[in-house]
Specification:
The structure holds 2 protein chains of 2 kinds. In chain A, helix 1 runs antiparallel to helix 3. Chain A folds into 3 domains: about 150 residues; about 70 residues, no CATH class; about 230 residues, no CATH class. Chain A is mainly α. The longest helix of chain A is centred in the middle third of the chain and has 49 residues. In chain A, about 75% of the residues lie in helices and about 0% in strands. The C terminus of chain A is likely disordered. Chain B is about 40% helix and about 25% strand. In chain B, strand 1 and strand 2 form a beta hairpin. Chain B is of the alpha/beta class. Chain B folds into 2 domains: about 150 residues, P-loop containing nucleotide triphosphate hydrolases (Rossmann fold); about 80 residues, no CATH class. The chains are: A mainly alpha, B alpha/beta. Chains A and B meet through helix 16, helix 17, helix 18 and helix 23 of A and helix 2, helix 3, helix 4, helix 5 and helix 6 of B.
Chain lengths: ~550, ~260
């Protein structure tokens, strides 16, 4: 027992040090200063302050979860230690900056930052406040672990909801102003932050909502869920369907445009999910099929000099999908015998070849080289040309729904079983009579077809396309989003696309720091939740099979 | 007895190593035959040659009237040879029943389009597959464990599940690679009975690799002994037990001659 407590202490000190490192780094790279101008709660506290005090609270919360059994008083003291160390390290930074000319090296240590860190007081007073607040938030975080589960989850959800509303305040302000007018919007927000009273209302309302939902979930029998007949299941989908249909009206042009980008990545994600998530074929050149779909659409429909057929969008669409799927088969054939890393390298090469071909002089007479293809007409339905993002949204929604539908049905059938068997053990799958050539090529073709569909919608969306739109980063982005979402899982792909494509767009005001957060998110996710946000059953079992005991027979 | 599998003079080398050296073997239909031999004698390589996992360098394999030596593994599986592995190889992150369903795969007929459109054919086939898989699980003694994750089953159950998966393709010839390896005497006895059942109840010809001599001598109609990739003896359990070359291969020349002397006295 003695041993355990002493190791617990070392962990507390370590966590404090980590929290301090995070806050000090965020300060030195200028993040705190930039975020310091952005209020969460109008006039009360800024996102910069959140950055300073959230790390000790989060780390104390997670440590408290592990050492809960040591009792509330010991845990409180340890949490306080975490907060104190973190605050002290910040104070040390301020002191060091006053004593040594640190700013010649670390240019972000501006007087303004120092003012933020000391709350515009003297070093000693500022240090006391820093340490005091850090200790308070850390202890608060730790004590949350001792709140009964139902209340704790409601509280956490409410905190996250309120923070989320505060984070997206400028966008929400703009939307509410659009619908209800300036005066209503100003009741809730200043132009960029939550007002205090609405924040409290939002917090209380969401806490109550999550509490009752949690309670309802506890009381209802889980079996009842499965006994719904198909018609009841359909009925349950109606609110979602209505929501998806009116979404562009709620969002307005700018946000719909972001949603459309998310949709295109989602479409590609669903395709890659089949290739990587189900069939286990690591494809790093996936953007190639996106490019092929986009260029096919461009060549077939463009009204410019490079257009060959001036076809309509709808007539060209199936051709684009077919050409991409064929390209998938053509790439798939030479790499049939390759596995894992080798396959990844070959597909990586294939993706680059397609991009460089598009740039090359060889194909310039046909697809325009670096000048790309221009004058790609927008699709039209019944004489209405779909120009605005709100109109194109429905095309993308249709594509994504179709892809999700097909993915889901394939996964829950013999095709899905053979893909998973092949991913688990290719040799055994073959010995069980599975034709590896056909199974692999089918995965490549369907994955490439989805990606080609995305490309075919992408090209009229932009009305002109250039080779540099199809770089390696897109393949990597799609791979990241399906992994972060949950490999092999369709809902996971949706969440992954929203988080990795949607969020960076929404957080444009934070400039380059959003990519830093993107990177951090990837690292933290892979360390703490390698199975992704919404893992498929199969992957969850794989990663956590050690946790379960072997069933006795 | 009619012959179901006839391998003629098959040879397989890896670089300079001759793993199977001109092996000829005939497996009678409805028999239980065993391949034994010291470690590294080429037994598993021989299995891999029959199932098409390795391409043979030379020689012919005639199975049920067809030459199969250059066929792909999945084609060979489809015409009726199925196998299990020395170190159990299940699809670990899937459930027991899903493993068996994969084994049924070669006999399914619905297309990709059926799967997407959920045609009546699809539903019928899916229903009968699941029923058949349940039946197979029950036959191997895993009734009620279909929804268990295969990696969570006990060792003996995993061996049986592997056999159920192999049976799903309705094989005529079943290759078992050390089916009782790592089992205690009780489990071994049970597995031995089970192998007899496979032959007697399902009419499947069994070819097995096995190190446990009590199992081999107890159930085999025909035993083939390999050493350094060549056949050194063949016959019924009695003949093999008394074969000098077999004893030499297993115990060394000195022990063999000692045994001969003991017998003479």
């Amino acid at each position: 027992m003695d041993n355990l407590t002493s190791s617990g202490w070392r962990q507390a000190l370590l966590q404090g040090f980590v929290a301090g490192l995070i806050t000090v780094s965020a300060s030195t790279i200028g993040m705190v200063e930039l975020f310091g101008t952005r209020y969460f709660l109008a006039g009360l506290f800024t996102m910069g302050q959140l950055l300073l005090f959230a790390p000790p609270a989060v780390l104390a919360f997670s440590l408290a979860g592990k050492i809960k059994s040591q009792g509330i008083s010991i845990v409180t003291v340890k949490a306080a230690a975490i907060g104190a160390i973190s605050g002290a390290m910040l104070a040390l930074l301020v002191w060091a900056n006053q004593t040594f000319p640190l700013r010649t090296v670390l240019i972000n240590l501006s007087p303004k930052l120092m003012g933020l860190l000391t709350f515009d007081r003297s070093l000693a007073e500022g240090a006391l406040i820093l340490i005091g607040v850090s200790v308070a938030t850390a202890v608060f975080g730790a004590l949350l672990q001792f709140v009964p589960r139902l209340y704790r989850q409601a509280l956490l959800s409410a905190i996250i909801t309120t923070l989320g509303v505060g984070l997206l305040a400028p966008l929400l302000f703009e939307r509410i102003r659009n619908f209800f007018g300036q005066s209503v919007a100003q009741l809730v927000f200043t132009s960029s932050a939550l007002q205090v009273v609405p924040a409290i209302i939002i917090f209380a309302a969401s806490a109550a909502l999550f509490y009752f939902r949690g309670k309802a979930a506890l009381n209802s029998k889980p079996k009842a869920e499965q006994k719904l007949n198909p018609r009841q299941k359909m009925l349950r989908q109606i609110p979602l369907a209505i929501f998806l249909l009116i979404l562009p009206m709620l969002l307005g042009s700018y946000l719909t445009e972001i949603t459309n980008n998310v949709g295109i990545f989602l479409l590609m994600g669903l395709g890659l999910n089949i290739v990587v998530g189900l069939a286990g074929l690591l494809d790093l050149g996936y953007v190639a099929f996106f490019a092929i779909g986009a260029y096919t659409m461009a060549v077939l429909t463009s009204t410019g000099p490079l257009g060959v057929a001036q076809m309509s969008f709808w007539a060209a669409l199936p051709i684009c999908v077919a050409v991409s799927a064929l390209a998938g088969v053509l790439l798939g054939t030479p790499v049939l015998r390759m596995r894992g890393d080798y396959l990844a390298i070959v597909t990586l090469g294939f993706g680059e070849i397609i991009r460089i071909l598009a740039l090359s002089d060889l194909l310039k007479p046909f697809i325009g080289g670096a000048q790309g293809i221009l004058q790609i007409p927008k699709p039209s339905i019944a004489g209405i040309t779909l120009i605005s993002p709100e109109q194109l949204y429905y095309v993308i929604l249709g594509g994504a729904l179709l892809a999700a539908f097909i993915s889901n049905r394939l996964r829950e059938s013999r095709v899905g079983r053979t893909w998973i068997a092949m991913r688990e053990d290719e040799d055994v799958a073959e010995a069980m009579g599975i034709n590896l050539v056909r199974t692999k090529l089918l995965a490549f073709a369907i994955g490439a077809g989805f990606s080609g569909l995305a490309g075919a919608i992408f090209s009229p969306k932009l009305t002109s396309i250039f080779p540099h739109s199809f770089n390696l980063l897109i393949s990597i982005n799609i791979l990241s989003l399906i992994i972060v979402g949950g490999l092999g899982s369709i809902p996971g792909t949706i969440v992954g696309a929203l988080v990795l494509v949607g969020l960076p767009e929404l957080l444009r005001e934070f400039a380059e720091f959003r990519w830093l957060m993107y990177g951090l998110l990837l690292v933290v996710m892979m360390l703490n939740r390698p199975e992704g946000f919404i893992p498929s059953d199969v992957i969850r079992r794989e990663l956590h099979s050690g946790d379960e005991h072997r069933a006795e027979v | 007895m009619p012959i179901i599998l006839k391998a003629t003079d098959i040879k397989k080398t890896f670089g300079g190593l001759v793993a199977v050296n001109g092996l000829s073997i005939e497996i009678p239909r409805n028999s239980i035959s065993a391949v034994i031999g010291p470690n590294g004698a080429g037994k598993t390589t021989f299995f891999n040659c029959i199932t098409g996992f390795y391409k043979v360098d030379s020689g012919e394999v005639l199975f049920d009237g067809e030459y199969i030596q250059n066929r792909r593994t999945d084609q060979i599986s489809r015409i009726g040879i199925s196998r299990t592995y020395q170190n159990i190889r299940l699809f670990n992150s899937t459930t027991a029943i899903e493993n068996v369903l994969v084994g049924l795969e070669p006999r399914l007929e619905t297309s990709v389009l059926d799967s997407v459109l959920r045609t009546r054919r699809f539903h019928e086939e899916e229903k009968s597959s699941v029923e058949e898989a349940r039946g197979l699980l029950e036959f191997v003694g895993l009734k009620g464990l279909g929804d268990q994750l295969s990696s969570n089953l006990s060792y003996g159950a995993q061996r049986r599940l592997e056999i159920a998966r192999a049976l799903a393709s309705k094989p005529k010839l079943l290759l078992l690679d050390e089916p009782t390896a790592g089992m205690n005497p009780n489990e071994t006895a049970e597995m031995t009975r089970f192998i007899l059942d496979l032959r007697d109840k399902l009419g499947i010809t069994i070819l097995l690799i096995e190190h446990d001599m009590r199992v081999v001598m107890g159930i085999s109609d025909q035993i083939t002994v390999l050493d350094y990739g060549s056949k050194i003896a063949e016959g019924g359990p009695k003949d093999i037990q008394n074969d000098v070359r077999v004893i030499e291969a297993y115990l060394g020349r000195g022990a063999a001659s000692g045994l001969k002397d003991a017998k003479a006295n």
